[in-house]
Amino acid sequence: MFLEEAIKKRRSIRTYTTKPLTLAALSQLLFAAQGITTEHNGYALRSAPSAGAVYPFDIYVIVNNVENVRQGIYRYHVDDHALELIKSGDFRAQSSDACLGQETVRRGAVTFLW
User: Fold this and answer.
1) Total domain count for the chain?
2) Rounded distance between C-alpha atoms, residue 51 and residue 53, angstroms
3) Contact 73, 60 (CB under 8 A)
4) With contact defined as beta carbons under 8 Å apart, do 59 and 82 qualify?
5) Structural domain harbouring 70
């Protein structure tokens, strides 16, 4: 598929399954967002571009419904492709409130924070 065709067909879907997201799917999403793809001249280059390869932000995920991962807030460690639990618990209400009451945030399996 050409890029233009993909852009024309792209639509946001705001209905979610209640089935848990697999850990493999979450891993793939995290890699696509910031995973290390190669090293070049001493720099670890990632799947998303950054001027000067400085990557000035971190990714956090609020896990609501992922197989074999307890609910909580996690930080993604790019170098290890690993999650660090920051705080366990159910943060669906707080994350929804922080996003102006969006129910889609409350119902999603995960919420990504940059």
Assistant:
1) 1
2) 5
3) yes
4) no
5) 18-113
